[in-house]
TrEMBL record:
Catalysed reactions, semicolon-separated: 3-dehydroquinate = 3-dehydroshikimate + H2O
Keyword terms, alphabetized: Amino-acid biosynthesis, Aromatic amino acid biosynthesis, Lyase
Binding of substrate, residues: N73, H79, D86, L100, S101, R110
Active site: Y22 (proton acceptor), H99 (proton donor)
Cited InterPro entries: DHquinase_II (IPR001874), DHquinase_II_CS (IPR018509), DHquinase_II_sf (IPR036441)
GO molecular function: 3-dehydroquinate dehydratase activity
Organism of derivation: Alkalimonas cellulosilytica
Pathway linked to the protein: Metabolic intermediate biosynthesis; chorismate biosynthesis; chorismate from D-erythrose 4-phosphate and phosphoenolpyruvate: step 3/7
Annotated site (Transition state stabilizer): R17
EC number: 4.2.1.10
Oligomeric form and interacting partners: Homododecamer.
Lineage per the UniProt record: Bacteria, Pseudomonadati, Pseudomonadota, Gammaproteobacteria, Alkalimonas
Pfam families the record matches: DHquinase_II (PF01220)
Protein's UniProt name: 3-dehydroquinate dehydratase
Role of this protein: Catalyzes a trans-dehydration via an enolate intermediate.
Amino acid sequence: TRILLLNGPNLNMLGVREPSVYGSQSLAELVQQLQDYATSLNVELSHFQSNAEHELLDRIHQSLGQIDFIVINPGAFTHTSVALRDALLAVAIPCIEVHLSNVHAREPFRQHSYLSDIAKGVICGLGPQGYRFAIEAAVSFTQSNP
Ligand code: DQA
């Protein structure tokens, strides 16, 4: 199973950025833990973070035929990007949307996502653990949909 972990804008600032909302762990630490977890599940995990919408789109396009499942935290693009939605539809790679914070307990503008209805599932509010659960779910999804 080949899983792509995508993190959108400002997630490179984890650990520094609003720690009361997003926690104190850096993105590098988080990704390392997820890599170890993926290895324990015998899964190939690649990771890409960008603050640029087009770079995320390019990475999704390049995943065609290369990646079985995408775990994505689109950051603020969740609430703005029709293009990200269209890219995921274009490659038709199943995905899970993850948010560290509980977006439903925050500002009203965070409560709409352009991705949720096309995702296999959505996890929010569980912090870094949410990514783990998404990887676990991605593995069982790909095993039951080979
Ligand atoms: C986020 C929630 C978004 O609303 C916000 O713009 C982010 C992070 C989260 O992980 O909780 O950048 O996706």
